[in-house]
Design goal:
Layout (H helix, E strand, L loop, with lengths): L1 H10 L1 H39 L5 E5 L18 E2 L1 H7 L4 E7 L1 E3 L1 E3 L13 E6 L10 E6 L7 E5 H6 L7 E5 L5 E11 L9 E6 H7 L5 E2 L1 E6 L5 H8 L7 E5 H48 L1 H9 L4 H40 L13 H26 L23 H21 L5 H34 L1 H6 L2 H12 L1 H39 L4 E5 L8 H8 L4 E14 L2 E8 L10 E4 L12 E5 H7 L6 E5 L5 E11 L10 E4 H7 L5 E8 L5 H10 L6 E4 L1 H8 L1 H35 L1 H9 L4 H37 L9 H27 L3 H5 L3
Parallel strand pairs: 6-11, 8-10, 17-22, 19-21
Antiparallel strand pairs: 1-13, 1-14, 2-12, 3-13, 4-6, 5-9, 7-10, 8-11, 9-10, 15-23, 15-24, 16-17, 16-23, 18-21, 19-22, 20-21
Helix pairs in contact: 1-9, 2-7, 2-9, 2-10, 2-21, 7-10, 7-15, 7-21, 9-10, 11-12, 12-14, 12-15, 12-23, 14-23, 15-21, 15-23, 21-24, 23-24
């Protein structure tokens, strides 16, 4: 039977290749994901290992309320007193020490715009231009280190891509307005010339202290131990003299810690991509099951002949599963190596959507090979199991019958009740995952994922009942446009509803998921716009050019000097800890109520002006959760470990879409005293005369020295803030398109195989006068009807899923994007047309005489 299976597979090369394509694409997604994330992890690991290669021990700041990975004032680790350097240097085990500054500074290109790629950070470092460079993680490629004011070194990647050379000037934004500095050197870090899209600005140490307002402060202390001491011993020596806001690790431990932080982020990306690979393979399972069901139905006489010659049911089962296993193995091998190219494509995709990460030599791990091959073969075999079991029910007598068909299963009559029970069970499982409390995140996600998969399976099982009426309605335009060919196409779609339903179900899954994403995104954007309309009471808003980064307070001060400006009011953002949990802390100007209008549950618009040093206000939800009322004391711990003793002055009711305020809001006066490097997330401006071209020009002119900031009207503000939603939405569409492409191959498979199956029928149609063009039209209309059935099933399922998810997360607004859904339907029609090209041409090329003699 093994030889029979191999020979049969060799005879059906085209059918095997079409079956394998679904697995090839799904496995390529898994392989590409692992290769991409492993390669990026390797790059980061190499960088951090090289950075701390000559550092035995390192002291850094420690945020009292967070990890200290952010540098925007939110959860930034506090800097260290420079006096600590002398205390460390005096310890017996310390041979050499050096303090350093690390912060953020943006480079400005010749076009006057910030040099930024893929949302990557803009890093800033200090160097000691003279003396031992043991602790310097940077390596000069050209020129010399900066040694005084007006000088800077930049990274090699920026120098290469933006065509900068030693001796030229470049714009730099550190604190405040742009400065023009002379490039003295070009450097790389950790042995790599590029950290993805990150830029580097490198300053002389005293200059860096002044630029970043850290005179007398340090961000890190690097230490070399004396002979006879180990790094661990030096760490134990240092710990007793550290302030609460500092921490000490060995150089190796610090490299490992930094690598771990980046790996955590990469694990999220990896899981994100693997989820889409799982969707693609799930759709591929439908395609394989349908394809094998058709091929087994077409091989009824062949299988019956084997039974007549003595093959047992078990041998037939093994034969079919062996074919599936071989197809899965070959497809997985192709997909595994296709993943090498897909990894580069995924990286380019992330760069285009604002995520640019460093790259190193490609990592092709053993785990990638094992998982890719195992998953591909397993999915193929599982998808083939039902068709293989059906093959065992072919009776030997079918070998002598003309046009023998597979007998229906004895369980066929239970199909509809089982489908309905599957749908109900899947919905119940999703509801448990969405609404039942006390579940872990993993259990919750598992319940939702399994429930969603069960829902798709249940709808697919029920689809064969829905196909005849759907095909009748959706195929009606074909009968009007295509004439006889259109009527035949509609009849063909209705002839075998199980087959049509299985083919359409693969497309249903992809369309359901894009519908889910689209509905949720539309509701989010609608809610945000409604919120802005309610609270935005300003003429203009000042934000970062990338829409999300904080900007210097100096930019707001520049706007105050513009004639006619009446209000310039900023909102700062930071983090803190209160009542045992992390919170978002805001700092607001006294006149914020003139530009931001919120409803006050307790208090009035005068509250922000009355905050002073000890006042605070909160949202009604936060007050309700913690049973706060006006006059309640609030203790907020800052990243530096200091505790602000506050008194609640007011409670406001934010709109459904949220507000620019955090959990606890204090005055900018108190905020600036407690948080290092305070910056504005938003700044709102009122000017005499309101929004006019002249006022816009005056405000933009005042910001000429701040290329990282932009002035916007209310409509522009809404549009720019929604860009993040649109970017994520487009990224999801692109990733989900893989499952839709696989479903299109499913339609191609079905049409090609039905062309084989109906060879004599097509020959007869040609013999009685049907032209090649009419034959192509018939196949094309059948494909379109099948695609439309997939849309008719997928879009409602997606809307139902969106409603369930929306209820679970208390989504403020539910909105159906009618225009977008119409586009999806049109896309389904186009997909049907594309899927029919090859099968239609194949059918049209059939030789009439040979087709009439075909068995």
């Amino acid at each position: 039977m093994i030889a029979v299976a191999l020979k049969g597979l060799a005879r059906r090369k085209l059918r095997a290749a079409l079956t394998a394509l679904a697995i090839v694409l799904g496995v390529a997604m898994i392989s590409g994901t692992y290769i991409l994330t492993d390669t990026i992890k390797s790059a980061f690991g190499t960088v951090f290992t090289q950075v701390y290669r000559h550092t035995d021990v390192v002291i850094t700041g420690k945020s009292a309320i967070g990890s200290g990975k952010e540098r925007n004032g939110a959860a930034a680790a506090p800097s260290l007193p420079e006096s600590l350097l002398a205390a460390v240097r005096a310890l017996p085990g310390v041979a050499q020490t050096e303090g350093g500054i690390s912060d953020t500074a943006q480079l400005v290109g010749r076009n006057g715009k910030v040099i930024s790629s893929g949302g990557a950070p803009s890093l800033a470092f200090s160097v000691h231009a003279t003396g031992n460079q043991r602790f310097n993680p940077l390596q000069l490629v050209a020129g010399a280190w900066p040694s005084g004011p007006g000088e800077v070194a930049i990274d090699a990647n920026t120098a290469e891509t933006k065509h900068y050379a030693v001796g030229e000037t470049i714009g730099v934004i550190a604190r405040g307005a742009e400065q023009r500095l002379r490039i003295t050197g070009i450097a790389k870090i950790g042995g790599v010339s590029s950290l993805g899209g990150a830029t580097m600005a490198i300053f002389d140490f005293p200059v860096a202290q002044r630029l970043f307002h850290k005179v007398g402060r340090l961000d890190s202390i690097s230490i070399a131990d004396r002979p006879g001491y180990t790094p661990a011993q030096v760490v134990r020596e240092i710990r007793p003299i550290l302030p609460p806001s500092a921490q000490v690790r060995t150089g190796a431990a610090e490299a490992q810690h930094a690598t771990s932080n980046t790996n955590g982020f990469l694990e999220i990306i990896q899981d994100f991509l693997l989820a889409f690979a799982g969707v693609a393979l799930f759709v591929g399972g439908f395609v394989i099951a349908n394809t094998l069901s058709i091929t087994i139905a077409q091989r009824t006489r062949e299988l019956a002949t084997l039974r007549t010659l003595g093959a047992t049911r078990r041998q037939v089962l093994r034969s079919v599963l062996l074919e599936a296993c071989l197809i899965g193995l070959l497809a997985s091998i192709v997909g595994l190596f296709l993943g090498l190219g897909l990894a580069k494509g995924l990286n380019s995709l992330f760069v285009s959507f604002g995520i640019d990460l460093p790259q190193a030599s490609t990592v092709f791990a053993t785990r990638t090979i094992v998982v890719s091959l195992a998953v591909g073969v397993l999915i193929t075999v599982l998808a083939a199991l039902r068709p293989a079991l059906r093959a065992t029910h072919v009776p030997p007598i079918a070998a002598v019958r003309e046009g023998a068909l597979l007998p229906p299963s004895r369980f066929a009559r239970f199909g509809t009740p089982v489908a309905l029970l599957t749908i109900l069970g899947a919905v119940a499982l999703m509801l448990i995952g969405l609404f039942v409390g006390g579940l872990s995140t993993g259990s919750r996600l598992l319940a939702i994922g399994v429930g969603a998969a069960g829902l798709f399976v249940g709808v697919a099982m029920l689809a064969k009942v829905l196909v005849p009426p759907l095909a009748s309605v959706l195929g009606w335009p074909a009968t009007r446009i295509g004439g006889a060919a259109g009527r035949l196409a509609r009849g063909n779609a209705m002839r075998n509803p199980t087959r049509t339903a299985s083919t359409a179900s693969a497309l249903m899954i992809g369309l359901a998921l894009v519908t889910l994403v689209s509905v949720l995104a539309t509701g989010l954007k609608s809610t945000f716009e409604s919120s802005v309309n309610q609270i935005f009471n300003a003429d203009y808003a000042l934000t970062a050019t990338n829409n999300f980064s904080p900007v210097s307070i100096a930019s707001a001060q520049a706007l105050r000097r513009v004639p006619g400006v009446q209000v310039v009011s900023g909102v700062r953002a930071g983090q803190g800890r209160a009542f045992g949990g992390e919170i978002n802390v805001s700092g607001v100007s006294p006149d914020i109520s003139r530009v931001i209008d919120v409803k006050w549950q307790h208090g009035s618009p005068a509250v922000p002006a009355e905050l002073g040093q000890s006042g605070a206000f909160v949202s009604k939800d936060y007050a309700k959760e913690l049973h706060l009322h006006v006059g309640s004391p609030i203790a907020v711990e800052t990243p530096a470990g200091r505790v602000m003793r506050l008194r609640l002055r007011g409670i406001f009711a934010p709109p459904k879409g949220g507000s620019p305020y955090g959990d606890v809001t204090i005055s900018t006066q108190r905020f600036d005293a407690e948080y290092e490097n305070p910056q504005n997330v938003f700044t709102f401006v009122n000017i005499a005369g309101g929004v006019t071209a002249a006022n816009t020009h005056r405000l933009e002119s005042a910001l000429a020295g701040f290329p990282d900031a932009k002035i916007q009207t209310e409509s522009q503000f809404k549009s720019s803030q929604e860009q993040g939603i649109d970017t994520l939405l487009n990224l999801l569409y692109v990733l989900l398109s893989l499952s839709i492409i696989i479903s299109l191959f499913g339609i191609v498979n079905t049409l090609v195989l039905t062309v084989f199956e109906r060879t004599r029928e097509l020959g007869m149609l040609r013999a009685v006068g049907m032209t090649r063009r009419q034959l192509r039209r018939m196949i094309r209309h059948e494909s379109i009807v099948t695609a439309l059935i997939g849309a008719a099933l997928g879009i409602p399922v997606g809307i139902v899923l969106a409603i369930m998810v929306g209820q679970a997360i208390e989504y403020p607004t539910f909105a159906i994007p009618v225009g977008t859904l119409v586009v999806f339907v049109i896309a389904a029609i186009i997909a049907g047309i594309l899927a029919a090209i090859f099968p239609a041409r194949r059918a049209a090329r059939l030789n009439v005489l040979e087709a009439l003699q075909y068995e």
